[in-house]
C-alpha cells in the first residue's frame, strides 16, 4: 500500500491538552508495550545482520541455487516420454510471477515498479529471445549430459564477446583469446569423449547409431542455444539502458511477457491429452516432478537474489571468479546425479573447461582494472541491474 492509504487509518493523539495526565498514561503505556512487543529482539537483529553480510554464505548460496537449477531442469526433462517443454517453461514463469507478486504484496520486494504497457511493448522482443534461449536450453539438456552441456555453454561467452566488439565497441584482450581457445578445446574434447562413449554403448543403448543420432540432436540444439543466448544477452544490454529497469523489473517483465507466448506454443505444438500427461508424469515420479517444476520457478528468483547478494557483500571480481569456479561443481553434479560416463576424455574436458573459465574471469578482472586506471577516456561499462547481471551469468554458466 502507499503511504496515503495507511494514513487514513492512523489516529493521531494531541500532544497536549484535551486529556488529563492520569487518563493519558494508561493509553501511552499500552501503546508503548505494543510497539516494544513488535520490535524484534536485538540479538535476533544482530544474527540476521551477520548472516546478511556474510561473504562466504552468499557465495555458497549462489552456487547452490545455480547448481540446483541445472540439476532440477535435467531431472524434469529426462523422462522417457517427456515432450512438454513449453508447458514446463510456462509453469516456471507462472510460479516466478506468483512468487514475485506475493513478495511485493508482503513488502519483501520494494523496488518493483508498477506494470507499464509502453515498457512491455518495448521489452516484448527481448522476451521472445528469452523464450528461444530457455526452450533450446531444455532441449539441449534433454539430449546431452550435464557436463557436456556445461562445457558447450562456454561457447556462448565467445559469441557474446565478439558481439560486444561489433555493436558496443568492446575489445578482446590476448588473455581472453587464450581462454576462448581453451573453451573451444574443451568442447572438442567433450564431443570426442561423448562420441567414444556412444560407440562403446556407455549411454545404455546397444545401437550406436541411435546414440549418435541423440548426440547430434543435442549438439544441434546446443548450437541454437548458443546463438539464442548471445542474442538475448546482447539485445537486453542494448534495450535495458533505455528502460531504466531496477533489480526486479527485468525478471518481472521477462516472465510476465513470456507466459502468453509459451502457452500458445504449448497449445499448438504439444499434446495436452490425459494420456500424454500420464506418460510425461508417471505415477511413480509424478510428485517429485511437480515439485521440481515448482522449485525451478522459485530457483530463478533465488539465483537473482543470491547474485545481487554476492555482488553486494563481496565484489564484482569475486562474483566473476565464483561464476567461473561454479562450472566445476555443476559438471560434477551431472556425473553424480545422472550417471554420465566417467572417462579420461570427459574428465579432461571438464578440467579444461574449468581452467578456461578461470582464465576468462581473470582476463575480465584485469581489463576492468585497466579501464579504471585509464584517465584519458571513460571506458567503464554501463551499469546493469543485479537481475540483468544474474541473467547474463546464468546464460553463461
Automatic annotation (TrEMBL):
One of its GO terms (cellular component) is Golgi membrane. Residues 1-41, 375-397 are annotated as: Disordered. It is a multi-pass membrane protein. The chain crosses the membrane at residues 82-102, 123-145, 219-240, 252-269, 289-311. One of its GO terms (biological process) is transmembrane transport. It comes from the Eukaryota. The keyword Zinc does not apply. It is found in: Cytoplasmic vesicle membrane; Golgi apparatus membrane; Endoplasmic reticulum membrane. Keywords: Cytoplasmic vesicle, Endoplasmic reticulum, Golgi apparatus, Membrane, Sugar transport, Transmembrane, Transmembrane helix, Transport. Residues 1-10 have a biased composition (Basic and acidic residues). Its main location: membrane. Pfam families: UAA (PF08449). InterPro entries: SCL35B1-4/HUT1, TPT_transporter. The keyword Endoplasmic reticulum applies. Belongs to the TPT transporter family. SLC35D subfamily. Involved in the import of GDP-mannose from the cytoplasm into the Golgi lumen. Homooligomer. NCBIfam families: nst. PANTHER family: SOLUTE CARRIER FAMILY 35 (PTHR11132). This is GDP-mannose transporter. It comes from Tolypocladium ophioglossoides (strain CBS 100239) (Snaketongue truffleclub). The lineage of its organism: Eukaryota, Fungi, Dikarya, Ascomycota, Pezizomycotina.
Amino acid at each position: 500500500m502507499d503511504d496515503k492509504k495507511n494514513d487514513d487509518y492512523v489516529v493521531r493523539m494531541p500532544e497536549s491538552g484535551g486529556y488529563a495526565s492520569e487518563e493519558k498514561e494508561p493509553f501511552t503505556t499500552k501503546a508503548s508495550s505494543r510497539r516494544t512487543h513488535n520490535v524484534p529482539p536485538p540479538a535476533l537483529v544482530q544474527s540476521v545482520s551477520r548472516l546478511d553480510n556474510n561473504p562466504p554464505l552468499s557465495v555458497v548460496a549462489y552456487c547452490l541455487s545455480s547448481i540446483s537449477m541445472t540439476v532440477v531442469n535435467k531431472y524434469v526433462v529426462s523422462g522417457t516420454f517427456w515432450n512438454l517443454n513449453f508447458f514446463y517453461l510456462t509453469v516456471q514463469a507462472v510460479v516466478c510471477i506468483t512468487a514475485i507478486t506475493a513478495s511485493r504484496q508482503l513488502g519483501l520486494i520494494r523496488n518493483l515498479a508498477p506494470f507499464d504497457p509502453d515498457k512491455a511493448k518495448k521489452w516484448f522482443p527481448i522476451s521472445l529471445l528469452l523464450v528461444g534461449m530457455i526452450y533450446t536450453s531444455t532441449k539441449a539438456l534433454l539430449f546431452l549430459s550435464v557436463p557436456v552441456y556445461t562445457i558447450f555453454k562456454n561457447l556462448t561467452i565467445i559469441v557474446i564477446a565478439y558481439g560486444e566488439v561489433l555493436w558496443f565497441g568492446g575489445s578482446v584482450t590476448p588473455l581472453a583469446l587464450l581462454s576462448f581457445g581453451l573453451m573451444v578445446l574443451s568442447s572438442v574434447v567433450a564431443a570426442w569423449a561423448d562420441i567414444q562413449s556412444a560407440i562403446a554403448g556407455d549411454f545404455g543403448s546397444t545401437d550406436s547409431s541411435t546414440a549418435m543420432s541423440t548426440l547430434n540432436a543435442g549438439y544441434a540444439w546446443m548450437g541454437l542455444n548458443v546463438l539464442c543466448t548471445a542474442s538475448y544477452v546482447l539485445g537486453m544490454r542494448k534495450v535495458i539502458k533505455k528502460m531504466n529497469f531496477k533489480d526486479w523489473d527485468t525478471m518481472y517483465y521477462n516472465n510476465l511477457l513470456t507466459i502468453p507466448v509459451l502457452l500458445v506454443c504449448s497449445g499448438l505444438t504439444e499434446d495436452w491429452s490425459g494420456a500424454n500427461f500420464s506418460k510425461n508424469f508417471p505415477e511413480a515420479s509424478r510428485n517429485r516432478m511437480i515439485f521440481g517444476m515448482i522449485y525451478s520457478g522459485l530457483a530463478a528468483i533465488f539465483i537473482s537474489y543470491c547474485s545481487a547478494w554476492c555482488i553486494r557483500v563481496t565484489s564484482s571480481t569475486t562474483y566473476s571468479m565464483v561464476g567461473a569456479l561454479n562450472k566445476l561443481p555443476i559438471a560434477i553434479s551431472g556425473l553424480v546425479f545422472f550417471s554420465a560416463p566417467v572417462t579420461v576424455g570427459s574428465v579432461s574436458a571438464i578440467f579444461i573447461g574449468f581452467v578456461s573459465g578461470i582464465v576468462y574471469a581473470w582476463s575480465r578482472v584485469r581489463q576492468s582494472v585497466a579501464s579504471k586506471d585509464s584517465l584519458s577516456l571513460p571506458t567503464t561499462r554501463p551499469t546493469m541491474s543485479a537481475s540483468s547481471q544474474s541473467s547474463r551469468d546464468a546464460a553463461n554458466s
